[in-house]
Amino acid sequence: MTVGSGQVYVVTGGCGFLGSHLVRMLLEHEKNISEIRVFDLHLDESLRTLSNDRVKVRLISGDISRLEDVREALRGSHLVIHTASLVDVWGRVPASKITEVNVTGTMNVLQACKEEEVQYLVYTSSMEVVGPNIHGDHFYRGNEDTEYRIYHKEPYPLSKAKAEKLVLEANGAKIKGGKLLYTCSLRPTGIYGEGHELMKQFHRQGLRTGRCVFRAIPPAIEHGRVYVGNVAWMHLLAARQLQIHPSTLGGQVYFCYDSSPYKSYEDFNMEFLSACGFKIIGSRPLVPYFLLYLLALLNALMQWLLHGFFTYAPILNPYTLAVASTTFTVQTDKAEKHFGYQPLYAWEEAKKRTITWVKSLEVSRKDLKDVGEKGNYCCN
Ligand SMILES: NC(=O)C1=CN([C@@H]2O[C@H](COP(=O)(O)OP(=O)(O)OC[C@H]3O[C@@H](n4cnc5c(N)ncnc54)[C@H](O)[C@@H]3O)[C@@H](O)[C@H]2O)C=CC1
Ligand SMILES: C[C@H](CCCC(C)(C)O)[C@H]1CC[C@H]2[C@@H]3[C@H](O)CC4=CC(=O)CC[C@]4(C)[C@H]3CC[C@]12C
């Protein structure tokens, strides 16, 4: 295999949902690179096979919260896309662990950039650094400059906000050798697409309830969603343009957006699940909000009581209920203006790809059924 003398990119969290799409996107669309280093705690060996005669995909097993691991991975590289994170709003992992990975991990990436002379860093942030807040203030078609009461209490959004602040403050810092570090931050709304773990969970849950989804959130509450391929594409463009126009992109934040429709979280999921015969029951929530809130509180209480015995972490808790019940949608063209971003995938294509993947979940479950699992499967 002959590998050229292009740039070396490091993708932290490169084996995750977004990270693995990003690695494939870089391989297909970024002609200027000769090596992609995929840094992750848990390696996905299948990515290794993506190496071709132009680009080598190197898998590096490491822990972002260990500076030495990060330094080694960054040595001799040109640019880092830092997506590694613990994404947990359910209390599956202790808050201290979330901080260690998301905040200390990001400090390590910054430190390693400085020590290993890496000039460019693109950080994957989240809409959660802005909101929704616990006061239930709606963020309707907002942009990067929209004023909003930002209030963080939960470990995940708190950690993403701290990490983003560190990343932005580091823009323009001197690195070893005297050059400057340039950083920018991308804030996806709820990402969906092939490999989305939460969609798998909703699919499994729907099978258990006879392909019925019981409406819990009013349909008028809109939740911003963005296709994973477009989020990856935006990272690629930001990485490219950060090097060409560092003074424009450096220190900036960009919401990730595309042409996915504004809908409630449940109605949006139905765009895919309905292709597998799922039905949403009720045009309004079947359970009054206060009951749902009580249930969410009960779940939180159970989590607290069972703590130490096992991890009780259901999807519904007061925080996820608040997020799902508060409108958060973005409408902006900052990324287009600053680095020419336009979605690579139109909504129809993103939907088609996601439906194909959701249907493939049915096939794999059907295989299970054929070897003895109970169930009722059909898909149109
Ligand atoms: N999933 C979503 O809807 C959204 C995600 N984001 C952000 O996008 C990024 C990617 O998220 P997803 O792909 O959904 O998550 P994911 O959990 O699929 O991927 C994260 C990756 O980070 C790796 N990782 C975790 N701890 C690590 C450690 N100590 N050292 C090295 N690697 C470690 C994981 O193994 C995983 O492969 C994250 O930064 C997340 O905060 C932002 C907005 C929405
Ligand atoms: C789990 C929530 C849906 C619960 C529906 C109910 C109440 C009927 O059971 C999800 C609703 C909104 C999601 C979050 C949102 O998309 C923003 C996010 C950004 C991130 O950076 C990480 C993931 C998440 C927090 C995402 C998590 C699931 C929801 C809370």
From TrEMBL:
GO biological process, one term: steroid biosynthetic process
Chief site of localization: endoplasmic reticulum
EC class of the enzyme, as a word: oxidoreductase
EC number annotated for this UniProt entry: 1.1.1.181
Chain ranges passing through the membrane: 286-306
Pathway(s) served: Lipid metabolism; steroid biosynthesis; Steroid biosynthesis
Entries under InterPro entries matching the protein: 3Beta_OHSteriod_DH/Estase, NAD(P)-bd_dom_sf, NAD(P)_dehydrat-like
Reaction catalysed by this enzyme: (25R)-cholest-5-en-3beta,7alpha,26-triol + NAD(+) = (25R)-7alpha,26-dihydroxycholest-4-en-3-one + NADH + H(+); (24S)-7alpha-dihydroxycholesterol + NAD(+) = (24S)-7alpha,24-dihydroxycholest-4-en-3-one + NADH + H(+); 7alpha,25-dihydroxycholesterol + NAD(+) = 7alpha,25-dihydroxy-4-cholesten-3-one + NADH + H(+); 7alpha-hydroxycholesterol + NAD(+) = 7alpha-hydroxycholest-4-en-3-one + NADH + H(+)
Signal recorded as keyword: no
3-beta hydroxysteroid dehydrogenase/isomerase domain residues: 10-279
GO terms of molecular function: cholest-5-ene-3-beta,7-alpha-diol 3-beta-dehydrogenase activity
Membrane topology summary: Multi-pass membrane protein
UniProt cross-references to SUPFAM superfamilies, sorted A to Z: NAD(P)-binding Rossmann-fold domains (SSF51735)
One GO CC term on file: endoplasmic reticulum membrane
Localization annotation: Endoplasmic reticulum membrane
Keywords annotated in UniProt: Endoplasmic reticulum, Lipid metabolism, Membrane, NAD, Oxidoreductase, Steroidogenesis, Transmembrane, Transmembrane helix
Family, as annotated: Belongs to the 3-beta-HSD family.
Function: The 3-beta-HSD enzymatic system plays a crucial role in the biosynthesis of all classes of hormonal steroids. HSD VII is active against four 7-alpha-hydroxylated sterols. Does not metabolize several different C(19/21) steroids as substrates. Involved in bile acid synthesis. Plays a key role in cell positioning and movement in lymphoid tissues by mediating degradation of 7-alpha,25-dihydroxycholesterol (7-alpha,25-OHC): 7-alpha,25-OHC acts as a ligand for the G protein-coupled receptor GPR183/EBI2, a chemotactic receptor for a number of lymphoid cells.
Protein name: 3 beta-hydroxysteroid dehydrogenase type 7
Organism of derivation: Xenopus laevis (African clawed frog)
Gene: hsd3b7.L
